[in-house]
Amino acid sequence: MIGHLSVLGAYTIFGFNIIICKELTNTHLVSSLGLFCFRSLGACLLFWLISFFLPKEKVPFKDLCGIFVASMLGFFLTQLAYLESSKFTTPLDTSIITSTTPIFTMFVAAVALKEPITWKKAGGVTLSFIGVILLVLNTISVHSGGVSETRPIGILLMIGNCLFFASYLGIFRPLISKYHVVTFMKWIFLFSTIVAIPLDIKELTHLPFAEMSTSYWLQLGYIILFATFIAYFLLPIGQKQLRPTVVSLYTYVQPLIGMITSIVLGMDRLNWQKILAAIMVFTGAFLVNKSRAREK
Description:
The protein has one domain. By secondary structure, the chain is mostly helical. Helices cover about 75% and strands about 0% of the residues. The protein has helices at about 1-25, 30-50, 60-85, 90-100, 100-110, 120-135, 150-170, 175, 180-200, 200-205, 215-240, 245-250, 255-265, 270-290.
């Protein structure tokens, strides 16, 4: 139960983060890479600070190399691909493409971890996928001033985003299970910070701080504290206890959050299609969780 609650919490935070990231990128005050640097550096400092109050874990060089690859796949490449793709894809197409992550994860886990693809698991993933497509087709609308047409580069970037994160979920469960969450994450964010900051050093030394409003700083604080530090603290807890395909299915929480937010704000209405879509998503997740794939 702890594993499910942890992953649910992480993806709920991610769901709200989509809205906030869009707001920040629309201001054009800081580039996508600049926002990534803020997230990575902020989380890095927080995880290393906490690590000083915990028992020290020695991480051998071989595992550090593995954590470096995990950092690139699970955070650096995944987040950059997503942030860049938002410039070239409509919200509808973004949601549809993102929904393929559990499918990619199922196949990656089958190859990397020998996690069998059972009929129940395949059926559950398919059912949830159809449910999400039904949901986004009945929820998302493109507002004026946003991206009105998806370009091929945007599709490629979103597919890259899904493949990178699916590889992270499907490959690194054994490595994550060896260490405390804080130990693993402090290295994840240190490596991503070391790679990212030199690439954006020119912008970071000339940031328009005077133009950043209080609202901007609050939103930036959310993506650093909640969408990065807390969410990436919760996610590995779930990864240690749940199979990769089960973890990836919580991706479908994000469009559900979008639907609920839109209804609460009066931007959308609840109808039978949305109720059916939600039932399909949760039924599919239940089938995958109950499949007879090996737990370890």
